[in-house]
# Entry
Amino acid sequence: MLSPLLIEYRREVWRTPCGRRITAALPEHVKGSHFGPELRCLVVSLIYQGQSTVALIVDLLNDWDVTISKRNVMRMLNDGMKTLVDEAQQVLAAGIAGAKWLHVDDTGARHLHRNCYCSVIGNDQFTYFATRDRKSRLNFLQVLSGENPQYLINSAAIDYMRKRILPKTTIKLLQNHPTRRFDCEQSLHSALDESGILQHKVNPLPLPIITEGALWGALLEDGKFTETVILSDDAKQIRLGCHALCWVHAERHLKKLPNPGDNNR
# Structure
């Protein structure tokens, strides 16, 4: 239901001894606009879930006797972008924390006039979308890690690097490094460069494997993906931890099994 509602906020005002005036803040859901939170939620839902345009939203609301302009709608979307991003990250973190299984996939998508990739992660409780420039194992791990990814060199990270055939000499240098946890990718790469690990002429290249392993180690250290099953279409960049195929792609392999009845013919 959309209806006009006038709310008067009585805000406490103080004046300090030095003459500065202090006014109590408005409630968090009041963003300085005369449009309420329900209407803002409707606009966001129509844009992202309804795949509607701003012009159609303006026409729809005007038909419902809501006096609103295209600029008002754009201001709702732009001013609240950080709030939407923060909420999406909270949904991802909460969904992964309580998930017994996750269905993941990625596909090509246009973004800002460029060819990018959209990754989807979810189950029957939540869905999260992320659009990135590339489709890789590193990108997938960064999406799983959320807004503030951590990089940790622990036993899980070392085990990941061994499976990716990182040379033993490089792994030994990592194990002897005094710093094990890094708050960003830049600090990890700087530490690797200073220790001389990046100068090793080895195959495969150590930098991508170490970065991926440190992300995976931090995820397992936080208690994530220890028992979570990852369902996918068997794409290489997604095969991590306890991995399984969704029934559509698992059925493809079943068709390749020999038919027992053929032996009797």
User: Anything to note?
Assistant: The chain is about 40% helix and 15% strand. The chain has a mean pLDDT of 86.
